[in-house]
């Protein structure tokens, strides 16, 4: 699918990191973009800097998501591209013993459930709305639309404490082919990008030494990924009409260690 001024796109989590880089790349290519993000301050700033429309949205809420899609479509028209970057995680062992007191604690179920709702259900909530909207369009170069989801290396090599995040991202991988099959008759392609360790705002607390050590774990190139590389892959998935129903690893060949 050609990316130009006739194309409307939505990027969730578009106010920072991988999402913002994707917004910038789409705008550079000429597309109209709506930024979906919970952070109003960052979202408004990103929208102003990129010439996009900002829609404050909580992906945990049907009403919030529906309102955001309605606003984006009112301004930019029906989207043909959805890139879902909204998400997050926590780091809690399944069960652990306090080294000092010997007290045993376990992973609170509500915190596990929240991560699944934020990543998996939040992603699916946006997919369903986008797919229904795309079905109202006529095919363009064979496609009515393209949906791109974001997983993580944790989906396949989750580290200690990542049980919830691994489960949530593995579910995104797992539903990719199924949703692609569901939407194949409607000429809507569905794919997932599975990034490794990227230098995003989530790494803000890491020291330069920590980042260097993490980068050295990557076989080649031995560095952290940069958001622009994710954005480049996302745009290639949009443009390449034969990429469908798959998860693409974008990680320099890394396979995560237990910790």
TrEMBL record:
Domain of life assignment: Bacteria
Keywords carried by this UniProt record: Oxidoreductase
Entry-linked Pfam families: adh_short
InterPro entries linked to this entry: NAD(P)-bd_dom_sf, Sc_DH/Rdtase_CS, SDR_fam
GO terms of molecular function: oxidoreductase activity
SUPFAM superfamilies xref list: NAD(P)-binding Rossmann-fold domains
Protein name: SDR family NAD(P)-dependent oxidoreductase
PROSITE patterns per UniProt: ADH_SHORT (PS00061)
Naturally occurring in which organism (per UniProt): Halioxenophilus aromaticivorans
Family: Belongs to the short-chain dehydrogenases/reductases (SDR) family.
């Amino acid at each position: 699918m050609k990316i130009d001024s006739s194309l409307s796109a939505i990027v969730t989590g578009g106010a920072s990191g991988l999402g913002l880089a994707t917004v910038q790349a789409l705008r550079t290519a000429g597309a109209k973009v709506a930024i979906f993000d919970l952070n109003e301050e960052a979202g408004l700033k990103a929208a102003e800097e990129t010439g996009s429309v900002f829609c404050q949205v909580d992906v945990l809420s049907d009403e919030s998501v529906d309102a955001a899609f309605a606003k984006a479509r009112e301004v930019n028209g029906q989207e043909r591209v959805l890139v879902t970057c909204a998400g997050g995680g926590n780091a809690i062992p399944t069960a652990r013993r306090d080294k000092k007191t010997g007290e045993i604690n376990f992973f609170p179920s509500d915190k596990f459930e929240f991560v699944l709702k934020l990543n998996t259900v939040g992603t699916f909530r946006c997919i369903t709305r986008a797919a229904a909207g795309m079905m109202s369009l006529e095919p363009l170069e064979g496609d009515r639309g393209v949906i791109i989801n974001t997983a993580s290396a944790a989906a396949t090599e989750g580290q200690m404490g990542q049980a919830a995040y691994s489960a949530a991202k593995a579910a995104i991988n797992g539903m990719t082919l199924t949703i692609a099959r569901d939407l194949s008759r409607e000429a809507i392609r569905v794919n997932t990008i599975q990034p490794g360790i990227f230098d995003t705002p989530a790494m803000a607390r890491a020291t330069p030494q920590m980042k260097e050590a993490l980068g050295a774990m990557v076989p080649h190139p031995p560095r952290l990924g940069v958001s622009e590389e994710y954005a480049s892959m996302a745009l290639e998935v949009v443009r390449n009409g034969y990429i469908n129903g798959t998860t693409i690893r974008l990680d320099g060949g890394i396979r995560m260690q237990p910790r």
